[in-house]
Amino acid sequence: MIRPAAKAALVALALSTTALSPIAHAQTKPTAPAAGVTVPPIVYEERTLANGLKVYTARDATTPNVTVQVWYGVGSKDDPEGRSGFAHLFEHLMFKSTRNMPTEYFDRLTEDVGGFNNASTYDDFTNYYEVVPANHLQRLLWAEAERLSSLVIDDAVFKSERDVVKEELRQRVLANPYGRFFSLNITQASFAQHPYKRPGIGSIEELDAATVDDVRAFHAAYYRPDNAALIVVGNYDEAQLNAWIDQYFAPLKTPASAIKPVTVVEPPRTGAKIVTTYGPNVPLPAVAMTWLAPAAADPDAPALSVLDAILSAGKSSRLYDALVYDQKIAQSIFSSTSTNAQPGIFYVGAIMAGGKTVEQGGASLTAQVAKLRAAPPTAAELAEAKAGLLADAVRSRETIDGRAFAIGYALRTEGDAARANTDLAALQAVTAVDVQRVAKTYLADDRKVTVRYLPESAGPAGARDPFDAPKPTPSVTFNGAVTSLAPEAERLAPPVAGAPVAPVLPSPVEKTLANGLRVIVAKSSDLPLITADLTVRGGSGADPAGLAGVSSLTAELLTEGTKTRTATQVAAATEALGANLEAGSGWEASSLTLSIIADKAPQGLAIMADVAENPTFKADELERVKAEALDGLSVSLQRPGAVAGFAAPTVIYAGSGYGHVASGTPGSLPKITRDSLVKTHAAYWRPDNAILVLTGDLTPEQGFALAETAFGGWVRPAGAAPAPIKGPTGYAPRNLIIDLPGAGQAAVVVVKPAILRSDPRYYAGLVANGVLGGGYSSRLNQEIRIKRGLSYGAGSSLSPRAATGGFSANVQTKNESAAQVVTLIKEELARLGDTPASTGELAARKSVLVGDFGRDLGTSEGLGGILGNLAIYGVPLDEIQVFTSKIEAVSAADVQAFSKTMLDPAQTSVIVVGDAKTFGGTVKAVLPGAVEIPVSQLDLDSPTLVKGK
Fold this sequence. Notes:
single chain, alpha+beta, 6-stranded mixed beta sheet, 23 strands
């Protein structure tokens, strides 16, 4: 299902849990399968403390971890007038200091022990969530009670985090060609009065107008026990957990004042209207159509969820089939149903294909909605939509944080945590007649708002969006108690950690079929879910010279038709099982990945085998996919981060098979023919060049039987498989400034070649990168985001492969601070090689690596990816058993030596992409000799990256 970026997290959640995945009232037994998919219920306990705090707990003794989440009943709709973005801004402040915790201490309790923390702000709620080793549960409960009761809100921290939020706004909204469309325009055009119309991320003007008193008043109004829900899922002793909750949360006081609810009611629409908006760097026009829709708890919500899935869930959906596949007028399509606590909107839309108009898109979208009003969906469509929604619900429950999220979301959007389970029965009960009925009830043409989004060049001179500017609003005066950080000697220490819970690591088993296919099987959980990953050696590094994108297109076209199935039949057959089947290509391998409910695995693997063995690469499908790829490129070339990413391989791997854009370029894609794909498939997609990994709820015997049935007949061709891809042989640093006029932000990327996977310094490299840029508390993020507020996030990555390796540090910042960020990155690279990391810092960064690895092992997809990578790089599978000990064995001297040799800032190349006129001379000053390239002169097929050179 293709979704607008601004709603991606919301939609993914809704599909997997509450309003969009409505089970009979049953916490202790599985729901009867209606769409062929059984969703295990979430078994939980609940109680309410005397101060109004709601508590939900769900024990899982199979995990060594626990998630602690607090969901507050305050979201963007509660932002004060003239202060849009306030709930989101406050979310950031909750990670700062309390009376007993200095700033960033929350990260010491989570990241530094191998866990993680985060938060998100929705229209109706703000949630804070952590996953930590289970022996740290008491410490997290203490910390959450601390920041609920004694948060420190001072002017310095407020201004610093406000700067970070402004960078987030620039990155998500202003630097994204469609950020304004999805984050601002659709809701602003759709609501006349309800505060859902205001942008959750706010605006620069309203953020600048806020004061620390505004923030303190907001905290006092909404952050209180009777507006909070504590959710704990994982491995714990129930009696001990309840005692800790009573110890830390029960004493908290609830204010005497009432919580101010949002009582605004959006008036019914009296007619249709068209709103035209404009944005900079918009390569393809877009259109959306919205209707007012009921709240998430409404009895019609399940039918609207099914309608939404019928319209846009997968390649067999109506909108994709009509606008993308058949008419070829859209680059992508989307739809979304209301998942709000109060009545919201249902919308459909499309980003148009090159040369197509919003009028064409609007007409086609209108026709598809009209068809659902005129006639009910087919039985097959209904079953497919339900299967997909229910399968997504299963996937969401694979992790402890996913289960906690389902409970919290149901509580905050539907008023009842039990709806996380009971909604599923309502979804299963939806009929075709129900779908037609809600289409007629809510999606009438005379109550439709059409939002058109066009490039600024298409508008009249001086054209502005037809939305009211924020009204100046005076700040409040806060007269309540103000908390300060206690002197160090007076601070209460957090509880000590308990005894660690030992993880149970997977034990992979393997065999090789008669045709040479290597099969690896490992059980990851008892959840009825299986991931099958088929990986072949040979990827984009093997693309023929001048034909960047061949491997990528070969993989993508696998699912676009076989000898016995058309592209639409492949999609329909897969989606009818509730399965996800995706293909992709990396630098040294390509893969097919299937996620499927366990009892549907035989049917899903049969489709997967057909796709892998028998693709037809029809000429018309190839031309359609190339056109879509070219349209996608036109969008990506307006994103500074994407442009820098396209340039990086040529900068560091020039002259080798890795020195091009893996997905193809505007110049290479039109040259690629069917013959190129057929040759690539014949050469690399063969059983003796492939590895099949099966993970999830299955035994080795079951896995091997599934593999033999599906792939045992795959014929090994005569002759040997292709030789491994050769890596680059030379590198010279160079610096680029790519001018992207009108870019809302600059991307700064620092890159260089790095080690191979076989290098004995592999683990030292992982730890060195972790210290530099792995996680929130890494050095780059500390210096660039936390201390200076110059970016929403700064990080780095190390990518060791078989024939080459790469290092990159990546930051997006306002254009004016690009030069400063370049300097900061280079300074941190130098410091890493000059000075040993402290014992505490090293231990913390190791914990991040070990924790991330362990959580990946706990999901079928994560385990499959780890085993597949080990196999493709020739690493013994028992590496998963020794990963932790090898990380722990890395010393500070190892990190320093690796950094001095492999991360020397003098050997890096720097790519800066942004609006060069705003740089002044600052970027050139820190990058003397840098080549400046206007984006209009960028040639991604040339070693120089400059047209005509």
